[in-house]
Specification:
Number of domains: 1
Order of helices and strands: HHEEHHEEHHHHH
Number of helices: 9
Number of strands: 4
Strand order of the largest sheet: 1-2
Largest sheet: 2 strands, antiparallel
Mean pLDDT: 93
Radius of gyration: 21 Å
Distance between the termini: 21 Å
């Protein structure tokens, strides 16, 4: 009995890790997908202008600036010090407040990267262990319970996002960036928020949510298939 309970704990941990991995993988994929940024930059308009025109740079400069900013988020030693020609004048691209906020964003991203790797390892080791023990049906059962809870949370958040994205986004920043308001930027003068305006984040969160749901059900289908193949569904 104790050994059985220990294995159930392993499968519960695997199920939770699988859900966390699905979410974090979706976040990382979309947050660092430069094709997505390009698509959004091509269609979003700020005060009737394209993002590049509103900032006062070329489309190629916008692409390079986006790559530079994304690279910063994955490099703990990188700096955001950068000068560019903006509206015909050489200037420092980011203000001190923007840089300070990005320090917080990078810290959060690096933590998420670590959790992504850890949850991925636990997920696939747990799947391998369940296959070795021929107990995929136990993992499937544990995952089903975790999936129900996850889908409830996602549904509630999804409704909130669709009804009032601004309040959701404000709460997100209060939770993950407590104690400061550096994230409150001016769309008329702060280049950081011009690169990723509110409309961009709205589209980003929707894509992350849909991707996470896809992977959550992909794993459930995978576990169901493997359970049947082992004759233990």
């Amino acid at each position: 009995m104790p050994k059985t309970n220990s294995r159930k704990k392993i499968y519960t941990l695997t199920a939770v890790a699988c859900i966390l991995f699905s979410l974090l993988f979706s976040i990382h994929f979309w947050c660092f997908n430069e094709s997505f940024y390009k698509s959004e930059h091509d269609k979003i308009r700020l005060y009737g202008k394209s993002i590049a025109d509103h900032i006062g740079i070329s489309d190629e400069q916008l692409k390079d600036l986006t790559s530079f900013t994304l690279d910063y988020l994955n490099d703990p030693k990188a700096s955001l010090d950068l000068q560019m020609e903006v509206k015909g004048q050489i200037r420092e691209v980011f203000t001190d407040d923007e840089k300070a906020h990005m320090v917080d964003v990078r810290r959060l991203n690096l933590i998420a990267n670590g959790l992504l790797i850890m949850s991925g390892i636990i997920t696939f080791v747990g799947i391998g262990y369940s296959l070795y023990r021929k107990e995929m049906h136990i993992l499937k059962s544990s995952y089903r319970k975790a999936l129900i809870s996850a889908m409830f949370v996602i549904t509630v958040l999804g409704i909130w996002i669709l009804i009032d994205f601004d309040s959701f986004w404000t709460m997100f920043h209060h939770v993950f960036f407590p104690g400061n308001d550096l994230w409150i930027l001016d769309l008329r003068k702060d280049i950081l928020i011009m690169i990723v305006p509110p409309e961009f984040f709205n589209h980003l969160v929707i894509r992350i949510t849909l991707s996470a749901v896809f992977f959550l059900f992909f794993f459930y289908c995978l576990f169901s298939l493997l359970s049947r193949k082992k004759g233990s569904a």
